[in-house]
Amino acid sequence: MKALVFLSAFSFINEFLPSYREYWKVLITDKKSKPNKIELEQYYDEVFIIDDLQCKKEVARILAKVLITREIESLYTTFEPVVEVAGYLREKFKLRGMSYDEALRVRNKHLMKKTAVENGIATAKFSLIKNLKGLYAFIRETGYPIVIKPVSGCATGNTFKISSFGSFFNVDVIKMLWRHKEFLAEEFIDGCEYHCNSIIVNGKIVFSSVGKNLYNNMDTVLAGRPKGSIAFPACCDNERPIGDIKSFNERLVNCYGIRDGISHAEVFVDSRGVIYLGEIAARIGGVPIGDCIKNTSGVDINKAYIDAPIDKFQPDSINERPVFTGYLTFPSKAGELVTISDENDFSHLGGIKEIKFLNKPGDRLMRQKNTAVRTGYIIIEDESYDRLKEKLLDAFQSFRLTVK
């Protein structure tokens, strides 16, 4: 029996695993994630808990143990910090999928931008900054505003817009500069932020979906804007910029060597309609993007994450409906949760598909320091994009949260 090996556990795919009876499912995770082994063994045939999932040698030791008795059909991860580890392991053990160098290009933002420029793909001007002299030189060349971010960051964490010299006196900016020996500085692109999620089989995109963020990710973290997006139905493919983004995405997938699996591209579209690469990742977009895609297209991109690398994705699962589906994540505040909304706060909104609350009174919450921090989410559908956006923003205003 061949094995499917997963680096880190993802709750949104667990429900599918029991149906893969022809495979031996192996999970490798670490102590930092505080795994419940008994619960995980309901989904995986074998669970290994190690000290550090980002330690290549430690993970390689477990993989070598698995290979003694089983052939590995596919190695999976959708946890950003482990993408390059997966690439290293595929190369070391000659497994199908992205190599170490290919994985680095979708993980290391500097290499990602260099690859884009080398292949004629539009992206913001950028520079790898190693000292303040280099930073000031980039500002003199580009002018304000600029964006600074970690080379291997995720979820828009430690990402800041620098609009003037005074921006450097922000406490979080100072911490970011202090903690990172090198970081990326980029020209600020004034435009709307979209994402394109794709399923790729044998180097060909067999399905893609475009979504538009309610507000750009950086604004949701730094300015407290509502975090969410709206997935467009296929009937919008001939409209600009949706069709243009899908074409741009095809170039990205080919350029970065994503041959089997899922990709998540983030792009900016300026007032002239020019599309710029923000980032691309070889993983599923953040929850609950997949649920919105499924509601509009019928395609479960979470299941496709398992199926695409083993040639089991079924194109006949595509069942597009002429509806827009959007989500809004509920924000968080630092402190102990006292009260939080319930479903009744949103009963005036039509088209609700799901409401989920992740926290309860008594939980300790953290401040909104990146796009992954949330206390829940709501998913709504509507035949009108504008009406749906109004509903999502209404949900943001209707949400209640108090902490102490």
The overall average pLDDT, rounded, is 95
Shape: globular
Could you name the CATH class of the largest domain? Alpha Beta
Number of helices: 13
Q: Record the strand order, biggest sheet.
A: 13-12-9-10-11-14-18-16
The CATH architecture assignment of the largest domain turns out to be 2-Layer Sandwich
CATH topology of the largest domain: D-amino Acid Aminotransferase, Chain A, domain 1
Helix percentage: 25-40%
Structure explained in plain terms:
This protein is α+β, with helices and mostly antiparallel strands and 404 residues long. It has 3 domains: 103 residues, Rossmann fold, CATH 3.40.50; 63 residues, Dna Ligase, domain 1; 213 residues, ATP-grasp fold, B domain (D-amino Acid Aminotransferase, Chain A, domain 1). It is built from 13 helices and 19 strands. The strands form 4 sheets. It has an 8-stranded antiparallel β-sheet, with helices on both faces. Strands 3-2-1-4 form a 4-stranded parallel β-sheet, covered by helices on one side. A hairpin with a 4-residue loop joins β12 and β13. The relative contact order is 0.11.
Key attributes of the depicted protein:
globular, 29% helix, 8-stranded antiparallel β-sheet, 3 domains, 404 residues, single chain, Rossmann fold, Dna Ligase, domain 1, 13 helices, D-amino Acid Aminotransferase, Chain A, domain 1, 4-stranded parallel β-sheet, alpha+beta
Give the topology.
Layout: E1 3-7, H1 11-14, E2 24-30, H2 37-40, E3 46-50, H3 56-69, E4 72-76, H4 83-92, H5 100-105, H6 109-118, E5 126-129, H7 132-142, E6 146-150, E7 160-162, H8 171-179, E8 183-187, E9 191-201, E10 204-213, H9 217-222, E11 227-231, H10 242-255, E12 261-270, E13 275-281, H11 289-297, H12 301-307, E14 324-330, E15 335-340, E16 352-357, E17 364-365, E18 376-382, H13 385-398, E19 401-403
Parallel strand pairs: 1-2, 1-4, 2-3
Antiparallel strand pairs: 5-8, 6-7, 6-8, 9-10, 9-12, 10-11, 11-14, 12-13, 14-18, 15-17, 15-19, 16-18
